[in-house]
Design brief:
Elements (H helix, E strand, L loop, with lengths): L1 E2 L12 E4 L2 H6 L6 E6 L9 E11 L6 E2 L5 E12 L6 H15 E11 L4 H12 L4 E8 L14 E8 L25 H6 L6 E3 L19 H11 L5 E4 L6 H8 L3 E6 L2 H10 L4 E4 L2
Parallel strand pairs: 1-13, 2-12, 2-13, 3-7, 3-11, 8-10, 11-12
Antiparallel strand pairs: 4-6, 5-6, 7-9, 8-9
Helix pairs in contact: 2-3, 5-6
Keywords: Methyltransferase, Transferase
Enzyme class: transferase
Family: Belongs to the N(4)/N(6)-methyltransferase family.
Length: 290
């Protein structure tokens, strides 16, 4: 693995996966190099995040441990166990220097997306208001999903929150024309042309989580779906722009950026995350920042 050295983030540069502590990597990145920064930091759940990968292989009829479509038999093969620690005594103290760098490396037209849940989002909103200025707050996006267990003791938590800030409210890039559109709930009320085109998404996004049995699944804990990132990357960057994710995890930001013709830097300190990204993005150079 080559040693990481920041390079010119221009048309000649190539995307990179960096294994290292993100604060160290951030300190070496140049000012205003990235059009989009997407962050999915640990949610401070107070426990380790663990996910075991599995795969199913077809076996002879009557064998295996489950029966699938058309009565076919399958054997479940257990894979690797992936985990990372998700507990911080001073969560804001952990995030603040990283968010300061996120603002510094954003281009004047750039946008920051910070993906959180109910535990810390309100405190991080106040912190971001202080770092960026309240006038730079663009959106609070609610990603709603309907999957998993439901407690009977309170309203079940079935959404994440994505805070959106811009570097300069007078200069930020936002391309709503190319964003995927949603079907109208009452298409008969809008006419056939509008119904066929669909409507622009609002700040509430209904999107399933990554299917536990789908092809998109990498096995990495807290993997975010490509559909959510595709909407973000499409709206807030242009082809050829640079995208940064320094809590990269499974590498969804990099995978989507690559598909959409953007260049990216994905950083993570967890070697298991880097291994997942290496498999998912085999043509991307991997560096060590240790």
């Amino acid at each position: 693995m080559a040693q990481w050295e920041p390079f010119a983030f221009d048309a000649e540069g190539t995307s990179a996966i960096v294994h290292g502590e993100n604060l160290t990597v951030l300190e070496g990145l140049p000012d205003e190099a990235f059009s989009l920064v997407y962050l999915d930091p640990p949610f401070n759940t107070g426990r380790d995040q663990v996910r075991r990968t599995t795969r199913s292989v077809p076996v002879a009829a009557g064998e295996g441990d489950r029966v699938g479509f058309a009565g076919r038999s399958y054997e479940t093969i257990m894979g690797s166990l992936l985990r990372y620690e998700d507990s911080f005594a001073d969560y804001l103290g952990f995030l603040e220097p990283r968010l300061m760098h996120a603002r510094r490396v954003l281009a004047r037209h750039g946008t920051l997306y910070v993906h959180l849940d109910y535990r810390e989002v309100h405190y991080v909103k106040v912190l971001l208001d202080a770092l960026f200025g309240r006038q730079c707050f663009l959106n609070e996006i609610i990603w709603a999903y309907d999957f998993g267990g439901r407690t009977a003791k309170r309203w079940p938590a079935k959404h994440d929150t994505i805070l959106v800030y811009v570097k300069d409210p007078a200069a930020y890039h936002f391309n709503s024309a190319d964003v995927d559109r949603e079907p109208y709930m009452a298409p008969g009320l809008v006419g056939p042309v509008k119904a066929a085109r669909g409507k622009l998404p609002t700040d509430v996004w209904w999107h399933t989580i990554v299917s536990p049995t789908g092809k998109e699944k990498t096995g990495y804990p807290t993997q975010k779906p490509a559909g959510v990132l595709r909407r973000i990357v499409t709206a807030s960057s242009r082809p050829g722009d640079w995208v940064l994710d320094f809590f990269a995890g499974s590498g969804t930001t990099g995978a989507v950026s690559e598909q959409l013709g953007r260049k990216f830097v994905c950083v993570d300190s967890n070697p298991e995350a880097v291994d997942v990204m290496r498999r998912r993005l085999p043509d991307t150079a991997v560096y060590s920042a240790s």
